[in-house]
Write a structure and sequence with these properties.
The protein is mainly α. Helices cover 51% and strands 3% of the residues. Bound molecules: iron/sulfur cluster. The site of iron/sulfur cluster (SF4) has 15 residues, from helix 9.
Amino acid sequence: MYFAIPDARQTLDRLMAVESTFDGTTQPIRQWVSEHRAKIKENRNLIENESPANDIPVLNMFLRDLLVRAIKGEMGSRVYEELLSTIKSKEDLHETNYREALKNANYRWGVDNGSKVISDVVHHVQSVLHWNWRVYIERAENEKETNFQSDPMLSIKNISFKLRDLALSNFSPHYAAFDLHVTRVLTRLGWLNYGFPFLGNTDLEMGNNPGNDKNYLFLHRLFDSLSDMTEGNYTPVDIDRILWHLGKSVCGARSRCGACPIGGGCPTGKHRTTDD
Ligand code: SF4
């Protein structure tokens, strides 16, 4: 049996026109990608300016994402709003405030668990990073190919690759936090097969389960490679966003291959003559 794997650059180009709805707004994926790039640029400026005034806004963005526990976006934004109103300066960094913010946000994973994560992260940022976010992001980018496995932040209890990468994705286009909706589309497109060359590294295992560390490292390496295949026209974060929006609009649990611009060029779509 022979099947062709769709070309990364051509496929992504075609997907940019697909309309996707999020938070009540419907627009082409091209627009979602462009807005996300602008957000990373804006956040990156906070880091590159190296002003002490930016330390707390950057910390709050990290905390927002490091506290995510399979919760709905709405709950995540409530935690963020509470962090912003409670932690405004370095003088506000104490446990009473962490607990109050989480309690007000009805943090679903529990105030004790959440405040422990915040305390550990704050301690790490103060005593290991010395508030030097720029050096931290530079190091992450230098070690992007191996998913920055040497990051001391990963030794904090309950900080997984996925949460750390979600936080990094605010500042770097090389880190995406993969979810099952994205990896389902990736699998249907046949793009996992582009990952065979990486399997000499036994830290990685081909698979599409982001909850498995070896699969996760494989997916990170694969997205880096897909980005290279587009000659950098699409970053790993762009590709993650494009597949996420495709999953939301056309290629969800029930795929609508008839409405997908890839259609017969997709190894799955080729065999799905009706919308399944
Ligand atoms: S053709 Fe079907 S399976 Fe393939 S990406 Fe499009 S919707 Fe998904």
